[in-house]
TrEMBL record:
Lineage of the organism: Bacteria, Pseudomonadati, Pseudomonadota, Gammaproteobacteria, Alteromonadales
Domain CstA N-terminal: 2-347, 365-508
Protein name: Carbon starvation protein A
Subcellular compartments: Cell membrane
Family per similarity comment: Belongs to the peptide transporter carbon starvation (CstA) (TC 2.A.114) family.
Amino acid sequence: MNAILLMLLGLGAMFLGYVFYSKFIAEKIFKLDPNFRTPAHEFNDGVDFVPTNKYVLWGHHFTSVAGAAPIIGPAIAVIWGWVPAFLWVVFGTIFFAGVHDAGAIWASNRNKARSIGALTGDIVGKRSQTLFMIVIFLVLLMVNAVFATAISGLLINFPSSVVPVWGAIFVALIIGQFIFRKWMNLGTVSIIGVIALYALIWAGPSVPIELPQSFLGVSDNAQWILVLFFYAAIASLLPVWVLLQPRDYINGLQLFIGLILVYSAVLISGPELVAPAFNNNTPEGTPSMVPLLFVTIACGAISGFHGLVASGTTSKQLDKETDLRFVGYFGAIGEGSLSLATIIAATAGFATLADWQAVYHSFGQGGVAAFVQGGANILQNGIGLNVDIAQTLLTVMAVLFAGTTMDTGLRLQRYIFQEWGHIYNIKWMEKAAPATLLAVGSCLLLAFGAGGADGAGGLLIWPLFGTTNQLLAGLTLLVITTILVKLGRPMYFTLIPLLFLLVMTIYALLIQLMGFYQKSDWFLFGLDLVVLIAAIWIALESAATLTKLRRERNQA
Protein backbone atom coordinates (compact mmCIF):
# COMPACT_ATOMS: atom_id res chain seq x y z
CA MET A 1 0.00 0.00 0.00
CA ASN A 2 1.18 3.53 -0.76
CA ALA A 3 1.84 5.78 2.24
CA ILE A 4 -0.02 8.68 0.58
CA LEU A 5 -3.36 6.89 1.02
CA LEU A 6 -2.62 6.14 4.68
CA MET A 7 -1.69 9.77 5.27
CA LEU A 8 -4.84 11.15 3.60
CA LEU A 9 -7.14 8.73 5.43
CA GLY A 10 -5.58 9.47 8.82
CA LEU A 11 -5.36 13.25 8.52
CA GLY A 12 -8.80 13.44 6.89
CA ALA A 13 -10.46 11.47 9.69
CA MET A 14 -8.81 13.57 12.41
CA PHE A 15 -9.80 16.80 10.63
CA LEU A 16 -13.44 15.69 10.50
CA GLY A 17 -13.24 14.69 14.14
CA TYR A 18 -12.15 18.20 15.12
CA VAL A 19 -14.69 19.97 12.91
CA PHE A 20 -17.73 17.92 13.94
CA TYR A 21 -17.14 15.72 16.99
CA SER A 22 -15.22 18.28 19.06
CA LYS A 23 -17.89 20.89 18.32
CA PHE A 24 -20.60 18.49 19.54
CA ILE A 25 -18.65 17.74 22.74
CA ALA A 26 -17.91 21.43 23.38
CA GLU A 27 -21.47 22.67 22.82
CA LYS A 28 -23.68 19.79 23.96
CA ILE A 29 -21.65 17.97 26.63
CA PHE A 30 -19.31 20.52 28.24
CA LYS A 31 -21.49 23.53 27.26
CA LEU A 32 -18.58 25.95 27.12
CA ASP A 33 -19.38 29.52 28.15
CA PRO A 34 -17.37 32.38 26.57
CA ASN A 35 -18.40 34.66 29.46
CA PHE A 36 -17.17 32.36 32.25
CA ARG A 37 -14.41 34.05 34.27
CA THR A 38 -11.48 31.69 34.06
CA PRO A 39 -9.03 31.12 36.94
CA ALA A 40 -6.29 32.73 34.82
CA HIS A 41 -8.15 36.03 35.26
CA GLU A 42 -9.47 35.37 38.76
CA PHE A 43 -6.07 34.46 40.25
CA ASN A 44 -3.72 36.24 37.82
CA ASP A 45 -0.33 36.33 39.59
CA GLY A 46 2.01 36.72 36.61
CA VAL A 47 3.78 33.45 37.48
CA ASP A 48 1.51 30.40 37.16
CA PHE A 49 -1.88 32.06 36.49
CA VAL A 50 -1.49 34.10 33.29
CA PRO A 51 -4.28 34.71 30.70
CA THR A 52 -2.72 33.59 27.43
CA ASN A 53 -3.44 33.89 23.72
CA LYS A 54 -5.03 30.61 22.65
CA TYR A 55 -2.42 29.96 19.94
CA VAL A 56 0.43 30.41 22.40
CA LEU A 57 -1.41 28.27 24.96
CA TRP A 58 -2.02 25.60 22.32
CA GLY A 59 1.72 25.59 21.72
CA HIS A 60 2.37 25.08 25.43
CA HIS A 61 -0.21 22.32 25.83
CA PHE A 62 0.65 20.50 22.62
CA THR A 63 4.40 20.46 23.05
CA SER A 64 4.15 19.62 26.77
CA VAL A 65 2.11 16.49 26.05
CA ALA A 66 3.86 15.61 22.77
CA GLY A 67 7.16 14.41 24.20
CA ALA A 68 9.08 11.45 22.89
CA ALA A 69 6.23 9.06 23.77
CA PRO A 70 4.07 9.66 20.63
CA ILE A 71 7.17 8.75 18.64
CA ILE A 72 8.42 5.84 20.77
CA GLY A 73 5.06 4.09 21.24
CA PRO A 74 3.87 3.92 17.60
CA ALA A 75 7.41 3.18 16.33
CA ILE A 76 7.48 0.12 18.61
CA ALA A 77 3.85 -0.95 18.09
CA VAL A 78 4.17 -1.34 14.30
CA ILE A 79 5.87 -4.66 15.06
CA TRP A 80 2.29 -6.05 15.11
CA GLY A 81 1.64 -4.46 11.71
CA TRP A 82 0.75 -0.96 10.59
CA VAL A 83 -3.05 -1.47 10.49
CA PRO A 84 -3.59 -1.96 14.27
CA ALA A 85 -1.31 0.97 15.11
CA PHE A 86 -3.00 3.21 12.52
CA LEU A 87 -6.55 2.40 13.68
CA TRP A 88 -5.76 2.92 17.38
CA VAL A 89 -3.98 6.24 16.73
CA VAL A 90 -6.76 7.65 14.50
CA PHE A 91 -9.84 6.49 16.43
CA GLY A 92 -8.10 6.90 19.78
CA THR A 93 -7.27 10.52 18.94
CA ILE A 94 -10.81 11.37 17.80
CA PHE A 95 -12.94 9.59 20.43
CA PHE A 96 -10.56 9.19 23.38
CA ALA A 97 -7.67 11.69 23.51
CA GLY A 98 -9.51 14.79 22.31
CA VAL A 99 -12.37 14.34 24.77
CA HIS A 100 -9.98 13.41 27.59
CA ASP A 101 -7.69 16.44 27.10
CA ALA A 102 -10.47 19.00 26.60
CA GLY A 103 -12.45 17.45 29.46
CA ALA A 104 -9.53 17.69 31.88
CA ILE A 105 -9.08 21.41 31.09
CA TRP A 106 -12.84 21.95 31.46
CA ALA A 107 -13.09 20.14 34.81
CA SER A 108 -10.11 22.05 36.21
CA ASN A 109 -11.27 25.38 34.78
CA ARG A 110 -14.66 24.98 36.45
CA ASN A 111 -12.98 24.24 39.80
CA LYS A 112 -10.50 27.11 40.22
CA ALA A 113 -7.79 25.42 38.11
CA ARG A 114 -7.30 22.66 40.66
CA SER A 115 -5.46 19.59 39.43
CA ILE A 116 -7.28 16.38 38.62
CA GLY A 117 -5.58 14.78 41.63
CA ALA A 118 -6.92 17.45 43.98
CA LEU A 119 -10.41 17.28 42.42
CA THR A 120 -10.64 13.53 42.95
CA GLY A 121 -10.95 13.89 46.73
CA ASP A 122 -13.99 16.18 46.49
CA ILE A 123 -15.70 14.59 43.51
CA VAL A 124 -15.00 10.86 43.88
CA GLY A 125 -13.66 10.30 47.42
CA LYS A 126 -10.58 10.51 49.64
CA ARG A 127 -9.55 6.91 48.98
CA SER A 128 -9.51 7.52 45.25
CA GLN A 129 -7.54 10.73 45.78
CA THR A 130 -4.84 8.82 47.67
CA LEU A 131 -4.59 6.27 44.86
CA PHE A 132 -4.63 9.03 42.26
CA MET A 133 -1.76 10.92 43.91
CA ILE A 134 0.35 7.74 44.05
CA VAL A 135 -0.29 6.96 40.39
CA ILE A 136 0.41 10.59 39.39
CA PHE A 137 3.70 10.59 41.28
CA LEU A 138 4.79 7.32 39.64
CA VAL A 139 3.94 8.59 36.14
CA LEU A 140 5.79 11.88 36.65
CA LEU A 141 8.77 10.05 38.15
CA MET A 142 8.90 7.75 35.12
CA VAL A 143 8.46 10.56 32.59
CA ASN A 144 11.10 12.87 34.09
CA ALA A 145 13.72 10.19 34.79
CA VAL A 146 13.28 8.36 31.49
CA PHE A 147 13.02 11.42 29.25
CA ALA A 148 16.26 12.72 30.75
CA THR A 149 17.89 9.42 29.78
CA ALA A 150 16.33 9.50 26.31
CA ILE A 151 17.46 13.09 25.67
CA SER A 152 21.00 12.41 26.86
CA GLY A 153 21.20 9.38 24.55
CA LEU A 154 20.07 11.42 21.55
CA LEU A 155 22.51 14.24 22.33
CA ILE A 156 25.34 11.70 22.50
CA ASN A 157 24.33 9.78 19.36
CA PHE A 158 23.56 12.93 17.35
CA PRO A 159 26.04 15.64 18.50
CA SER A 160 24.85 17.83 15.63
CA SER A 161 21.61 18.37 17.59
CA VAL A 162 23.30 19.95 20.64
CA VAL A 163 23.55 23.51 19.26
CA PRO A 164 19.93 23.73 17.99
CA VAL A 165 18.53 22.05 21.14
CA TRP A 166 20.16 24.44 23.61
CA GLY A 167 20.02 27.39 21.24
CA ALA A 168 16.23 27.00 21.13
CA ILE A 169 16.14 27.91 24.84
CA PHE A 170 17.78 31.30 24.20
CA VAL A 171 15.45 31.91 21.24
CA ALA A 172 12.47 31.16 23.52
CA LEU A 173 13.71 33.53 26.25
CA ILE A 174 13.93 36.37 23.74
CA ILE A 175 10.58 35.84 22.02
CA GLY A 176 8.94 35.35 25.44
CA GLN A 177 9.78 38.96 26.29
CA PHE A 178 8.44 40.18 22.94
CA ILE A 179 5.16 38.26 23.31
CA PHE A 180 4.49 39.07 26.99
CA ARG A 181 5.42 42.74 26.74
CA LYS A 182 3.69 43.06 23.35
CA TRP A 183 6.72 44.70 21.75
CA MET A 184 5.84 43.01 18.46
CA ASN A 185 2.77 41.26 17.05
CA LEU A 186 2.56 37.48 17.39
CA GLY A 187 2.89 36.79 13.66
CA THR A 188 6.16 38.69 13.29
CA VAL A 189 7.61 37.16 16.46
CA SER A 190 6.64 33.69 15.22
CA ILE A 191 8.39 34.17 11.88
CA ILE A 192 11.57 35.47 13.54
CA GLY A 193 11.57 32.63 16.07
CA VAL A 194 11.09 29.92 13.43
CA ILE A 195 13.82 31.38 11.21
CA ALA A 196 16.24 31.48 14.17
CA LEU A 197 15.38 27.90 15.16
CA TYR A 198 15.87 26.50 11.66
CA ALA A 199 19.09 28.46 11.26
CA LEU A 200 20.35 26.63 14.34
CA ILE A 201 19.24 23.29 12.87
CA TRP A 202 21.10 24.10 9.63
CA ALA A 203 24.21 25.08 11.59
CA GLY A 204 24.09 22.06 13.91
CA PRO A 205 25.98 19.56 11.69
CA SER A 206 28.79 22.10 11.21
CA VAL A 207 29.44 22.46 14.96
CA PRO A 208 28.81 19.07 16.62
CA ILE A 209 29.39 19.14 20.37
CA GLU A 210 30.35 16.13 22.46
CA LEU A 211 31.00 15.96 26.19
CA PRO A 212 34.04 14.00 27.39
CA GLN A 213 33.22 10.30 27.76
CA SER A 214 34.33 10.57 31.37
CA PHE A 215 34.76 13.65 33.57
CA LEU A 216 35.76 13.20 37.21
CA GLY A 217 34.55 9.64 36.90
CA VAL A 218 31.12 10.72 35.57
CA SER A 219 30.08 9.33 32.17
CA ASP A 220 28.87 11.59 29.37
CA ASN A 221 25.36 10.15 29.76
CA ALA A 222 25.30 11.04 33.46
CA GLN A 223 26.75 14.50 32.74
CA TRP A 224 23.90 15.31 30.35
CA ILE A 225 21.31 14.00 32.85
CA LEU A 226 22.67 16.28 35.60
CA VAL A 227 22.71 19.27 33.23
CA LEU A 228 19.15 18.55 32.11
CA PHE A 229 17.78 18.36 35.66
CA PHE A 230 19.66 21.52 36.68
CA TYR A 231 18.07 23.31 33.72
CA ALA A 232 14.60 21.82 34.35
CA ALA A 233 14.70 22.86 38.03
CA ILE A 234 15.38 26.49 37.08
CA ALA A 235 12.80 26.43 34.26
CA SER A 236 10.10 25.03 36.57
CA LEU A 237 10.52 27.97 38.98
CA LEU A 238 10.42 30.73 36.36
CA PRO A 239 7.12 32.46 35.54
CA VAL A 240 5.41 30.53 32.73
CA TRP A 241 5.61 33.46 30.30
CA VAL A 242 9.42 33.72 30.60
CA LEU A 243 10.35 30.33 29.17
CA LEU A 244 7.62 27.66 29.35
CA GLN A 245 5.07 29.38 27.10
CA PRO A 246 7.43 30.76 24.41
CA ARG A 247 9.52 27.59 24.27
CA ASP A 248 6.44 25.42 23.90
CA TYR A 249 4.95 27.79 21.33
CA ILE A 250 8.02 27.96 19.12
CA ASN A 251 8.49 24.20 19.42
CA GLY A 252 4.88 23.72 18.36
CA LEU A 253 5.47 25.78 15.22
CA GLN A 254 8.69 23.89 14.57
CA LEU A 255 6.89 20.56 14.84
CA PHE A 256 4.16 21.58 12.44
CA ILE A 257 6.72 22.76 9.92
CA GLY A 258 8.58 19.48 10.41
CA LEU A 259 5.35 17.54 9.90
CA ILE A 260 4.56 19.57 6.78
CA LEU A 261 8.01 18.70 5.41
CA VAL A 262 7.56 15.00 6.20
CA TYR A 263 4.05 14.83 4.76
CA SER A 264 5.13 16.86 1.69
CA ALA A 265 7.98 14.41 1.13
CA VAL A 266 5.47 11.56 1.36
CA LEU A 267 3.25 13.23 -1.26
CA ILE A 268 6.18 13.82 -3.60
CA SER A 269 7.96 10.48 -3.28
CA GLY A 270 4.93 8.25 -2.60
CA PRO A 271 6.82 5.57 -0.63
CA GLU A 272 5.34 2.11 -0.24
CA LEU A 273 4.65 0.61 3.17
CA VAL A 274 7.17 -2.23 3.31
CA ALA A 275 6.04 -3.45 6.75
CA PRO A 276 3.15 -5.96 6.82
CA ALA A 277 -0.39 -4.71 7.45
CA PHE A 278 -0.78 -7.47 10.07
CA ASN A 279 2.45 -9.11 11.17
CA ASN A 280 1.82 -12.84 11.55
CA ASN A 281 5.53 -13.57 11.99
CA THR A 282 6.42 -11.48 15.01
CA PRO A 283 9.80 -12.17 16.64
CA GLU A 284 9.95 -14.68 19.46
CA GLY A 285 9.03 -13.11 22.78
CA THR A 286 6.67 -10.52 21.30
CA PRO A 287 3.62 -10.23 23.61
CA SER A 288 0.01 -10.48 22.47
CA MET A 289 -1.22 -7.46 20.55
CA VAL A 290 -4.34 -7.31 22.74
CA PRO A 291 -4.06 -5.67 25.22
CA LEU A 292 -0.43 -4.54 24.84
CA LEU A 293 -1.11 -2.38 21.76
CA PHE A 294 -3.36 -0.11 23.83
CA VAL A 295 -0.70 0.57 26.47
CA THR A 296 2.31 0.61 24.11
CA ILE A 297 0.68 3.46 22.17
CA ALA A 298 -0.49 5.81 24.89
CA CYS A 299 0.52 9.32 23.78
CA GLY A 300 -0.88 9.63 20.29
CA ALA A 301 -4.12 7.81 21.16
CA ILE A 302 -4.87 8.70 24.81
CA SER A 303 -2.51 9.40 27.68
CA GLY A 304 -3.05 10.09 31.36
CA PHE A 305 -0.08 12.45 31.38
CA HIS A 306 -2.16 14.83 29.24
CA GLY A 307 -4.65 15.19 32.08
CA LEU A 308 -1.86 16.30 34.40
CA VAL A 309 -0.73 18.98 31.97
CA ALA A 310 -4.30 20.03 31.15
CA SER A 311 -5.29 20.50 34.79
CA GLY A 312 -1.85 21.40 36.13
CA THR A 313 -0.60 24.20 33.89
CA THR A 314 -2.91 24.68 30.87
CA SER A 315 -6.06 25.46 32.88
CA LYS A 316 -4.15 28.18 34.77
CA GLN A 317 -3.48 30.02 31.50
CA LEU A 318 -6.88 29.74 29.79
CA ASP A 319 -8.07 33.17 28.63
CA LYS A 320 -11.60 32.14 27.56
CA GLU A 321 -13.36 28.87 28.34
CA THR A 322 -14.24 28.41 24.67
CA ASP A 323 -10.50 28.37 23.87
CA LEU A 324 -10.18 24.92 25.42
CA ARG A 325 -11.72 23.23 22.37
CA PHE A 326 -8.82 24.47 20.25
CA VAL A 327 -6.18 24.07 22.95
CA GLY A 328 -7.24 20.66 24.27
CA TYR A 329 -8.93 18.80 21.46
CA PHE A 330 -6.83 20.24 18.64
CA GLY A 331 -3.75 19.68 20.78
CA ALA A 332 -4.66 15.98 20.77
CA ILE A 333 -5.12 16.15 16.99
CA GLY A 334 -1.61 17.58 16.67
CA GLU A 335 -0.16 14.72 18.67
CA GLY A 336 -2.18 12.21 16.64
CA SER A 337 -0.71 13.67 13.45
CA LEU A 338 2.79 13.21 14.92
CA SER A 339 2.03 9.58 15.72
CA LEU A 340 0.67 9.06 12.21
CA ALA A 341 3.88 10.51 10.74
CA THR A 342 5.85 8.16 13.00
CA ILE A 343 3.90 5.13 11.73
CA ILE A 344 4.61 6.15 8.12
CA ALA A 345 8.32 6.82 8.81
CA ALA A 346 8.72 3.50 10.64
CA THR A 347 6.99 1.44 7.95
CA ALA A 348 7.63 3.27 4.65
CA GLY A 349 11.04 4.75 5.40
CA PHE A 350 12.89 1.50 4.68
CA ALA A 351 13.84 0.22 1.23
CA THR A 352 12.70 -3.39 1.70
CA LEU A 353 10.87 -5.65 4.12
CA ALA A 354 14.22 -7.25 4.97
CA ASP A 355 15.61 -3.85 6.00
CA TRP A 356 12.56 -3.28 8.18
CA GLN A 357 12.84 -6.74 9.77
CA ALA A 358 16.52 -6.09 10.52
CA VAL A 359 15.43 -3.22 12.77
CA TYR A 360 12.39 -4.97 14.25
CA HIS A 361 14.18 -8.17 15.21
CA SER A 362 12.71 -8.23 18.73
CA PHE A 363 9.93 -6.54 20.69
CA GLY A 364 10.90 -3.09 21.94
CA GLN A 365 13.08 -2.27 18.94
CA GLY A 366 12.39 0.68 16.66
CA GLY A 367 11.50 3.70 18.73
CA VAL A 368 13.06 7.11 18.05
CA ALA A 369 15.90 5.58 16.01
CA ALA A 370 13.44 4.06 13.50
CA PHE A 371 11.57 7.37 13.27
CA VAL A 372 14.78 9.33 12.62
CA GLN A 373 16.21 6.78 10.18
CA GLY A 374 12.98 6.19 8.24
CA GLY A 375 11.90 9.83 8.30
CA ALA A 376 15.31 11.04 7.07
CA ASN A 377 15.14 8.62 4.13
CA ILE A 378 11.68 9.92 3.19
CA LEU A 379 12.85 13.56 3.43
CA GLN A 380 15.89 12.82 1.28
CA ASN A 381 13.91 10.94 -1.38
CA GLY A 382 10.96 13.35 -1.37
CA ILE A 383 12.41 16.85 -1.15
CA GLY A 384 16.13 16.17 -1.57
CA LEU A 385 17.07 17.21 1.95
CA ASN A 386 20.61 16.22 2.91
CA VAL A 387 20.39 13.13 5.11
CA ASP A 388 22.55 14.70 7.88
CA ILE A 389 20.33 17.78 7.98
CA ALA A 390 17.22 15.56 7.90
CA GLN A 391 18.47 13.44 10.81
CA THR A 392 19.34 16.56 12.77
CA LEU A 393 15.89 18.05 12.09
CA LEU A 394 14.05 14.93 13.28
CA THR A 395 16.35 14.43 16.26
CA VAL A 396 15.86 18.04 17.34
CA MET A 397 12.09 17.56 17.03
CA ALA A 398 12.24 14.55 19.36
CA VAL A 399 14.63 16.16 21.85
CA LEU A 400 12.79 19.49 22.02
CA PHE A 401 9.49 17.77 22.73
CA ALA A 402 11.00 15.47 25.32
CA GLY A 403 12.64 18.54 26.87
CA THR A 404 9.43 20.58 27.05
CA THR A 405 7.69 17.58 28.57
CA MET A 406 10.46 17.43 31.20
CA ASP A 407 10.01 21.17 31.92
CA THR A 408 6.28 20.76 32.45
CA GLY A 409 6.64 17.38 34.18
CA LEU A 410 9.02 18.73 36.80
CA ARG A 411 6.77 21.74 37.39
CA LEU A 412 3.83 19.34 37.87
CA GLN A 413 5.89 17.17 40.21
CA ARG A 414 6.62 20.31 42.20
CA TYR A 415 2.86 20.95 42.37
CA ILE A 416 2.34 17.41 43.71
CA PHE A 417 4.77 17.97 46.57
CA GLN A 418 3.14 21.33 47.30
CA GLU A 419 -0.31 19.69 47.36
CA TRP A 420 0.99 17.02 49.72
CA GLY A 421 2.36 19.80 51.91
CA HIS A 422 -1.09 21.42 51.94
CA ILE A 423 -2.94 18.14 52.59
CA TYR A 424 -0.66 17.02 55.42
CA ASN A 425 -0.01 20.53 56.80
CA ILE A 426 3.74 20.51 56.07
CA LYS A 427 4.26 24.24 55.59
CA TRP A 428 7.80 24.21 54.19
CA MET A 429 6.76 21.71 51.49
CA GLU A 430 4.15 24.15 50.22
CA LYS A 431 6.90 26.52 49.08
CA ALA A 432 8.11 26.32 45.48
CA ALA A 433 11.88 26.00 46.04
CA PRO A 434 11.81 23.11 48.58
CA ALA A 435 9.14 21.30 46.53
CA THR A 436 11.32 21.63 43.41
CA LEU A 437 14.33 20.22 45.26
CA LEU A 438 12.22 17.25 46.37
CA ALA A 439 11.02 16.71 42.80
CA VAL A 440 14.54 16.80 41.36
CA GLY A 441 15.90 14.74 44.24
CA SER A 442 13.36 11.94 43.76
CA CYS A 443 14.15 11.76 40.02
CA LEU A 444 17.90 11.72 40.60
CA LEU A 445 17.49 9.12 43.34
CA LEU A 446 15.74 6.84 40.86
CA ALA A 447 18.17 7.69 38.04
CA PHE A 448 21.39 7.15 40.00
CA GLY A 449 20.23 5.13 43.00
CA ALA A 450 18.67 2.39 40.88
CA GLY A 451 20.73 2.91 37.72
CA GLY A 452 24.20 3.36 39.14
CA ALA A 453 26.76 5.88 37.95
CA ASP A 454 25.32 5.99 34.42
CA GLY A 455 22.06 7.51 35.67
CA ALA A 456 19.76 5.26 33.65
CA GLY A 457 17.70 4.02 36.61
CA GLY A 458 14.46 5.40 35.18
CA LEU A 459 14.59 2.71 32.51
CA LEU A 460 14.07 0.07 35.21
CA ILE A 461 10.44 1.06 35.79
CA TRP A 462 9.74 2.22 32.22
CA PRO A 463 8.09 -1.14 31.30
CA LEU A 464 5.23 -0.12 33.59
CA PHE A 465 4.84 3.39 32.13
CA GLY A 466 2.22 2.39 29.55
CA THR A 467 -0.09 0.65 32.02
CA THR A 468 0.36 3.24 34.78
CA ASN A 469 -0.20 6.07 32.30
CA GLN A 470 -3.40 4.52 30.95
CA LEU A 471 -4.64 3.93 34.48
CA LEU A 472 -4.13 7.65 35.08
CA ALA A 473 -6.17 8.43 31.94
CA GLY A 474 -8.95 6.24 33.33
CA LEU A 475 -8.87 8.18 36.61
CA THR A 476 -9.14 11.49 34.75
CA LEU A 477 -12.10 10.20 32.74
CA LEU A 478 -13.70 9.03 35.99
CA VAL A 479 -13.53 12.57 37.41
CA ILE A 480 -14.97 14.06 34.18
CA THR A 481 -17.73 11.42 34.02
CA THR A 482 -18.68 12.00 37.66
CA ILE A 483 -18.98 15.76 37.07
CA LEU A 484 -21.20 15.12 34.03
CA VAL A 485 -23.46 12.81 36.02
CA LYS A 486 -23.79 15.41 38.78
CA LEU A 487 -24.76 18.01 36.17
CA GLY A 488 -27.29 15.62 34.60
CA ARG A 489 -25.51 15.56 31.23
CA PRO A 490 -24.82 12.58 28.93
CA MET A 491 -21.89 10.57 30.30
CA TYR A 492 -21.38 7.84 27.71
CA PHE A 493 -18.91 9.88 25.67
CA THR A 494 -16.44 9.63 28.58
CA LEU A 495 -17.75 6.46 30.27
CA ILE A 496 -17.08 4.18 27.28
CA PRO A 497 -13.40 5.25 26.97
CA LEU A 498 -13.11 4.89 30.78
CA LEU A 499 -14.38 1.29 30.76
CA PHE A 500 -12.24 0.36 27.76
CA LEU A 501 -9.08 1.70 29.41
CA LEU A 502 -9.75 -0.01 32.73
CA VAL A 503 -10.29 -3.39 31.05
CA MET A 504 -7.20 -3.12 28.85
CA THR A 505 -5.03 -1.78 31.67
CA ILE A 506 -5.97 -4.51 34.14
CA TYR A 507 -5.54 -7.16 31.44
CA ALA A 508 -2.08 -5.78 30.51
CA LEU A 509 -1.00 -5.56 34.16
CA LEU A 510 -1.88 -9.23 34.66
CA ILE A 511 0.16 -10.24 31.61
CA GLN A 512 3.11 -8.14 32.75
CA LEU A 513 2.83 -9.51 36.30
CA MET A 514 3.20 -13.06 34.99
CA GLY A 515 6.17 -12.03 32.86
CA PHE A 516 7.97 -10.39 35.79
CA TYR A 517 7.29 -13.47 37.92
CA GLN A 518 8.75 -15.79 35.29
CA LYS A 519 11.86 -13.59 35.04
CA SER A 520 12.11 -13.35 38.86
CA ASP A 521 12.14 -9.57 38.53
CA TRP A 522 10.77 -8.98 42.00
CA PHE A 523 11.18 -5.18 41.94
CA LEU A 524 8.92 -4.77 38.91
CA PHE A 525 6.68 -7.60 40.13
CA GLY A 526 6.03 -5.71 43.37
CA LEU A 527 5.51 -2.39 41.60
CA ASP A 528 3.18 -4.05 39.06
CA LEU A 529 1.20 -5.56 41.92
CA VAL A 530 0.77 -2.13 43.53
CA VAL A 531 -0.48 -0.62 40.26
CA LEU A 532 -2.76 -3.64 39.63
CA ILE A 533 -4.37 -3.30 43.07
CA ALA A 534 -4.84 0.42 42.42
CA ALA A 535 -6.47 -0.33 39.05
CA ILE A 536 -8.92 -2.85 40.51
CA TRP A 537 -9.66 -0.53 43.43
CA ILE A 538 -10.32 2.35 41.06
CA ALA A 539 -12.63 0.18 38.93
CA LEU A 540 -14.65 -0.68 42.03
CA GLU A 541 -14.68 2.95 43.18
CA SER A 542 -15.83 4.02 39.71
CA ALA A 543 -18.74 1.57 39.74
CA ALA A 544 -19.78 2.50 43.29
CA THR A 545 -19.54 6.27 42.74
CA LEU A 546 -21.42 6.33 39.42
CA THR A 547 -24.11 3.93 40.66
CA LYS A 548 -24.68 6.05 43.76
CA LEU A 549 -24.91 9.28 41.76
CA ARG A 550 -27.33 7.84 39.23
CA ARG A 551 -29.52 6.49 42.03
CA GLU A 552 -29.57 9.88 43.72
CA ARG A 553 -30.52 11.63 40.49
CA ASN A 554 -33.30 9.14 39.79
CA GLN A 555 -34.72 9.69 43.28
CA ALA A 556 -34.54 13.48 42.98
